[in-house]
């Protein structure tokens, strides 16, 4: 599927999430039905991305996560249709995430600002580490290319939108914005997530650029080339694929999980959202606030939010309510 079609699917899906969030202001039953439709569209969007990640970008992690997002989105749609209205909080979160992320894909000046800012800060970090790459401008006029010369060959790494960390930051910002809590605690949760993700992303970019530019991981070249479909004349890409698609992406997943703990500590209301997210994929009830050892007052705040949502699901259910 072309980039234009996947972009259109993304915008249509996020528009549906925004409609569902606005519908909640009027009537939870209508909002639940609208949200079920939005999550169904979201499943189609993730399904369309699987070939892009697996075949074009050769990212097994992103491909697998996209594949898992399809049944998860359909599960959320089903549960909302059946009456689990507490999932409307997660629906609001996705609406905010999309409104943060998607403009950067379609507004040229915003896209360029993010790319060049990330490039400049990554460059500063690389030079602080003692390396001296050439930073070049691409055909579109963006200064986003790192060039290393190693063994008589030039190796170029490009900073694109995915390298800005905007997607991960949008996830946390969206969830923080979606819950109802005092602004002070929302700002605290923001402070221990978004800036940390930005810094870690710069480290990730610098690591990939240097690892590829200096050819750090030219090991098991035939096997890795076969795994990622790298032609023999481009075997130097082995370092890039191992640094980016294996090491950096695996570390990113771990980092996001670890960041979640201080965020939930700062904003316990998010525990109820995570409980719902886990229920979507397991159909089992979780009590994350209790598992993380939050203080009684904090856990109570999170549980109250989840309980209120659950009661709303029972009174405003569509069809019949599941055991939630």
For the structure shown, list the relevant keywords.
3-stranded antiparallel β-sheet; mainly alpha; 3 strands; 324 residues; disordered C terminus
Q: How is this structure best summarized?
A:
With 324 residues, the protein is mainly alpha-helical. It is built from 13 helices and 3 strands.
Mind explaining what this structure looks like?
With 324 residues, the chain is mainly alpha-helical. The chain has one domain (3-315). Helices cover 71% and strands 6% of the residues. It has helices spanning 3-23, 28-56, 60-82, 87-106, 108-128, 166-178, 183-191, 194-213, 221-228, 238-266, 269-282, 288-291, 296-315, and strands at residues 134-137, 143-150, 153-158. It has a 3-stranded antiparallel sheet, covered by helices on one side. β1 and β2 (143-150) form a beta hairpin. α7 (183-191) runs antiparallel to α10. The longest helix has 29 residues, at 28-56. The radius of gyration is 22 Å and the shape is globular.
Going by helix content, strand content and strand pairing, the class is: mainly alpha
In angstroms, what is the radius of gyration? Answer: 22 Å
Largest sheet: 3 strands, antiparallel
DSSP helical segment count = 13
Shape: globular
How much helix, percentage-wise, in residues?
A: over 70%
Query: Please, what is the oligomeric state?
Result: single chain
Domain count, please report it. 1
N- to C-terminal distance: 38 Å
The total beta strand count reads 3
Topology of helices and strands:
Blueprint: H1 3-23, H2 28-56, H3 60-82, H4 87-106, H5 108-128, E1 134-137, E2 143-150, E3 153-158, H6 166-178, H7 183-191, H8 194-213, H9 221-228, H10 238-266, H11 269-282, H12 288-291, H13 296-315
Antiparallel strand pairs: 1-2, 2-3
Helix pairs in contact: 1-2, 1-4, 2-3, 4-5, 4-6, 5-8, 6-8, 7-10, 8-10, 11-13
């Amino acid at each position: 599927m072309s980039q234009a079609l996947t972009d259109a699917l993304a915008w249509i899906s996020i528009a549906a999430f925004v409609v569902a969030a606005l519908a909640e202001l009027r009537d939870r039953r209508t909002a639940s039905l609208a949200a079920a439709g939005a999550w169904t569209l979201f499943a189609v969007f993730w399904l369309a991305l699987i070939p892009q990640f697996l075949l074009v970008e050769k990212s097994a992690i992103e491909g697998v996560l996209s594949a898992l997002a399809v049944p998860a989105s359909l599960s959320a749609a089903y549960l909302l249709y059946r009456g689990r209205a507490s999932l409307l909080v997660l629906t609001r979160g996705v609406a905010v995430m999309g409104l943060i992320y998607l403009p950067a894909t379609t507004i040229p000046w915003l896209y360029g600002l993010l790319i060049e800012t990330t490039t400049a800060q990554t460059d500063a970090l690389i030079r602080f580490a003692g390396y001296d790459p050439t930073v070049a401008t691409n055909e579109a006029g963006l200064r986003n290319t790192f060039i290393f010369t190693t063994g008589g060959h030039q190796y170029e790494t490009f900073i694109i939108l995915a390298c800005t960390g905007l997607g991960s930051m949008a996830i946390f910002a969206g969830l923080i914005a979606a819950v109802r809590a005092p602004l002070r605690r929302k700002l605290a949760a923001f402070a221990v997530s978004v800036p940390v993700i930005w810094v870690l992303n710069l480290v990730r970019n610098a690591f990939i650029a240097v690892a590829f530019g200096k050819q750090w991981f030219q090991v098991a070249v035939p096997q890795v080339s076969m795994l990622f479909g790298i032609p023999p004349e481009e075997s130097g890409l082995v370092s890039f694929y191992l640094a980016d698609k294996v090491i950096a992406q695996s570390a990113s997943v771990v980092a996001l999980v670890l960041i979640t703990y201080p965020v939930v500590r700062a904003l316990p209301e998010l525990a109820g959202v995570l409980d719902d997210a886990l229920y979507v994929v397991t159909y089992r009830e979780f009590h994350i606030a209790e598992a993380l050892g939050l203080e009684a007052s904090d856990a109570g705040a999170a549980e109250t939010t989840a309980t209120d949502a659950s009661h709303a699901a029972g009174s405003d259910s569509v069809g019949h309510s599941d055991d939630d």
